[in-house]
Amino acid sequence: MPHDLTRLQPLGDVSRRDFVMTALAAGFALAVQPVSAQTITTDTNGLEAGEVKIPVADGTIPAYRAMPAQGGPFPTVLVIQEIFGVHEHIKDICRRFAKLGYFAVAPELYARQGDVSKMTDFSEIIGKVVSKVPDKQVMSDLDAAVAWAKTTGKADTSKLGATGFCWGGRIVWLYAAHNPSLKAGVAWYGRLVGQADELHPKHPLELVSELKAPVLGLYGGADMGIPNDTVESMQKALKAADKPCEIVLYPDTPHGFHADYRPSYRKEQADAGWKRLQEWFKKNGA
Length: 286
Hints:
By secondary structure, the protein is α/β, with parallel strands linked by helices. The protein has one domain (21-283): 3-Layer(aba) Sandwich (Rossmann fold). The chain contains six helices and eight strands; from the N terminus they run βββαβααβαββαβα. It has helices at residues 88-99, 122-129, 135-151, 167-178, 228-240, 267-283, and strands at residues 47-56, 59-68, 74-80, 103-107, 155-165, 184-188, 215-220, 246-250. It has an eight-stranded mixed β-sheet with strand order 1-2-4-3-5-6-7-8, with helices on both faces. Helix 5 (228-240) links the parallel strand 7 (215-220) and strand 8 (246-250). 44% of the residues are buried.
């Protein structure tokens, strides 16, 4: 029978397109090399872990999934990438969650726009790829990841958490305003304000009234990219809106303090934040 590609076209105004990334990057992104000697590596003993494909509106995107090898269904956590995409560090975080009894999935949210793992220049990463990723597309892909997780029979998506780092930290705030089924979010040093544009119409500070899940924000007091006054503005806005969110500002702590593979890593604050994350998820049913 001849291949009729038109049959594969989804209905509506979404058309299939060529995805730049059909598989995840191997190892660490080039922009973060050489990796630090203190890099944490979590083994897969007792886990089922590896790359999966997630159906989305216009095709499939690659993702990394880790979960306990036995039992289930498990509480579910979306792990949202830094600006470097789903490279080895994000995969490792998925395995850390799996060791805690979670079904963790990290979809590659730049799959249509580009492969940042091969780029060494930060301005190129942001200019050529990150700035071109629409917030609306990211929300849809995260929804698709949750829907896919549910189909596996191993994920209890009624206990849904989300955490993200840097670029992904901002996305956690947006997703908490987007998905009423989210039980809890933890945003690590995600930008709170910024210039609005067509692809990024609103930033977290403007979405406070729309938050549907409690978010824990973990920030560094010495973060050069996220001024303390923007963190304080967010704290005030959350309090004024009576939202059950919390922000922790670690003094004298840089951006990327959880990134154990980079010089910005601060073990004490990273460990404290990871402990708070686990307590936050448990407290809020994720």
